[in-house]
Design a protein that fits this description.
Layout: E1 2-6, H1 17-30, E2 34-39, E3 59-63, E4 66-70, H2 81-106, E5 110-115, H3 121-131, E6 134-139, H4 143-149, H5 156-170, E7 175-178, H6 181-189, E8 197-199, H7 217-221, E9 229-234, H8 244-253, E10 260-265, H9 271-277, E11 284-287, H10 295-301, E12 304-307, H11 322-327, E13 332-335, H12 341-346, E14 350-353, H13 358-369, H14 372-389, H15 392-405, H16 427-432, E15 461-462
Parallel strand pairs: 1-2, 1-5, 2-4, 3-15, 5-6, 6-7, 7-8, 9-10, 9-12, 10-11, 12-13, 13-14
Antiparallel strand pairs: 3-4
Helix pairs in contact: 2-3, 8-13
Length: 464
Amino acid sequence: MRVLVVGINYAPDLIGVAKYTTEFCESMAAWSHDVRVVTGPPYYPDWSIPREYRTSWYVRERSNLVDVIRVPIYVPAQPSGLKRLLHHTSFLISATAPLLSAALFWRPDIVFVVAPSLLSAPVAALAARLAGAASWCHVQDLEVDAAFEVGLLRGSATRRVMATFERWILKAFERVSTISPQMMAQLEHKGIAPTRLREFRNWIDTSSVAPGSRQTRLRAALHLGPDDIVALYSGAMSTKQGLELIVEAAATVEEKHPSLKFVLCGNGPARSTLMEMSQGLNNVRFLDLQPLDRVSELLSTADIQLLPQKAEIADLVLPSKLAGMLASGRPLVAMAKPGTGLATEVDGAGLVIPPGDAAALAEALVTLAADAALRSRLGAVARARAEQKWDRTSILRSLEREFMTLPQCAPSHAARVPQPATSMRSIEQITTGSRRRPDETGRLASGRSMRPPARSLLSAKERP
């Protein structure tokens, strides 16, 4: 099966949507599907493109069996509402040529678009139609609603126009998926038929992120004592999380509870403001985002995981960091209204407090800090929930099976012909650079399309 993926965020960005798009693509490729992704350069959460990726042209690379086409985009240093719109518009414009080229010459079996960026979805739907491929839109954030709720966009007339545009886009796809039942209900309310909706939740590799000793190298590097109780936030630092509430809670408890320490790990536009707010507080530490091979250690450093969220975006997003927090086997303190998706996921695995309430956050942290048995009990529930509902392989295999139910993705009789099993590259692969991999005996030759391949006319610079 040939899968064409469209998403503005991809590795080497470490967090957020990029992590899940990358792991989805790499898993599909590892399972012998041909995967091509059209994406932008890395920039998140710093909103800055690394020097080695700065170019005004297309760049093509091969990463973990995935063909990656990076398109030039505008990335604002300070992302306001209008600048974000221009940012997504630049991706739409730049992604059009490689998308249509892939549709006409590479001939995918399915076109899978990740929102954000929803603005690129119409071209993805057109590409699917031109290729005769299945079309699938995966909604990580209800970005239009979220933009208005947090004040990035304003005006009732503008909101009506954007809502109409969003509904029109989503209805163009055969399947629309999202990451929680509550967000599925939001999409159904927008007019998407339930028969076309699927839940495709985020995940965590529960074998690589697991409960570990709290006495980590990171704890020592941050000058945290063995008896300190560490409350950790790890993720992007932007305006929508309400991270200033963590600093306010730290100021509240510093004098009476000196062993309660706060670690804010991440990067983003709000970091400098948070650091200014924290001046003079001895119980707050800042840490840059950690590489993937240190995520488990980072999460184990914590005694309590922090998940702030603004009330305005409840059920418009489900924080992607939640899966890792649960897998760490540590209790959570989450800001959420009762009945929301986040509150439901955290129930029994931590304490749920009202959004925007720094005093409630401080009180919850003091309660957990004083009760090791409670922390242990809630952490055990968190780990069990991660294994039951958030396991990476189970979720992605389920999505793969959904793909194969679509008529455009059903394997042909020819694709079922057994081939000799081999783990080596064939002469064809070496001499032609073919992406097709040898198939194991009796397994679907799922990397093959039912359409004849043709060479793409897209010009692209090859990354060394």
